[in-house]
């Protein structure tokens, strides 16, 4: 390997994903690659760290804000694509965000851009962030009320659970429905689940892609 090749450290918690990421990046021959399993010391020297969602956020929050670009840049590769999940990652200081269904070409492009000090968000994530910035955020109390609405609680139950008046609950419900552009309480819950503001059923497995993706490379 040439000395000028940027060091990239892979610390994805999923062993199959880690192997796939390593295989796809190694094919290009333009990065010095290390993995958390075999060369954990590589993290300290990395220009880019490729991680899963939880690890990437935890790592970004631990890093000092470095104006001069000396700290490693973090690229998350995940299945999580909800608005709240993406915004949490961005607010934590993550520099790149890819979905696991991405192509090998996009993975390489993302790592290249982070190595150059830029950011990279996959197209659907970019739209998600743009949409979220155009919406008014829910307050903490509105979120509390929303969580209880999702459990099927009535206004009286919510008031009792939160220790507030029924009239106050109605005000919060009205506010969150307006912000979510919902026409009914159940509609508000559906919209919130779609945006990742509250829990939703687990997503089905991603379909097999025809192109050579990350997981496919790991199985070869």
Describe what this molecule looks like in 3D:
- Helix 3 (83-91) packs across helix 5 (123-133).
- Strands 2-1-3-4-5-6 form a 6-stranded parallel beta sheet, sandwiched between helices.
- 48% of the residues lie in helices and 11% in strands.
- The protein has helices at residues 15-28, 53-62, 83-91, 104-115, 123-133, 140-150, 155-162, 166-180, 185-194, 214-218; strands at residues 7-11, 32-35, 48-51, 73-78, 96-99, 120-121.
- It is an alpha/beta fold and 220 residues long.
- Strand 5, helix 4 (104-115) and strand 6 (120-121) form a beta-alpha-beta unit.
Question: What helical percentage do the residues reach?
Answer: 40-55%
Distance between the termini: 23 Å
- Mean pLDDT, all residues: 85
The number of distinct helices, counting runs of at least 4 residues, comes to 10
SS elements, strand count:
6
- Quote the beta fraction: 5-15%
What would you report as the Rg, rounded to the nearest angstrom? 21 Å
Structural class: alpha/beta
Oligomer type = single chain
Strand order of the largest sheet: 2-1-3-4-5-6
What are the secondary-structure elements, in order, as H or E?
EHEEHEHEHEHHHHHH
Main sheet record: 6 strands, parallel
Query: What is the general shape?
Result: elongated
* Uncertain stretches of 5 or more adjacent residues: 201-211
């Amino acid at each position: 390997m040439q000395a000028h090749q940027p060091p990239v450290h892979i610390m994805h918690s999923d062993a199959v994903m880690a192997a796939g990421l390593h295989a796809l990046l190694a094919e290009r021959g333009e990065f010095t690659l290390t993995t958390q399993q075999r060369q954990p010391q590589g993290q300290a020297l990395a220009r880019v760290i490729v991680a899963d969602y939880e690890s990437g956020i935890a790592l970004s929050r631990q890093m000092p804000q470095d104006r001069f670009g000396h700290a490693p840049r973090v690229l998350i590769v995940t299945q999580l694509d909800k608005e709240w999940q993406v915004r949490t990652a961005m607010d934590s200081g993550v520099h790149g965000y890819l979905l696991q269904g991405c192509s090998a070409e996009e993975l390489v492009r993302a790592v290249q851009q982070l190595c150059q000090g830029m950011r990279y968000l996959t197209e659907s994530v970019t739209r998600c962030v743009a949409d979220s910035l155009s919406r008014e955020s829910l307050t903490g109390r509105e979120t509390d009320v929303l969580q209880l609405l999702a459990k099927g609680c009535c206004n009286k139950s919510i008031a009792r659970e939160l220790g507030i008046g029924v009239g106050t609950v109605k005000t919060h419900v009205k506010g969150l429905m307006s912000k979510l552009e919902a026409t009914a309480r159940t509609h508000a819950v559906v919209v919130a689940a779609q945006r990742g503001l509250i829990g939703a059923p687990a997503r089905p497995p991603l379909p097999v892609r025809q192109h050579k993706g990350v997981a496919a490379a790991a199985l070869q």
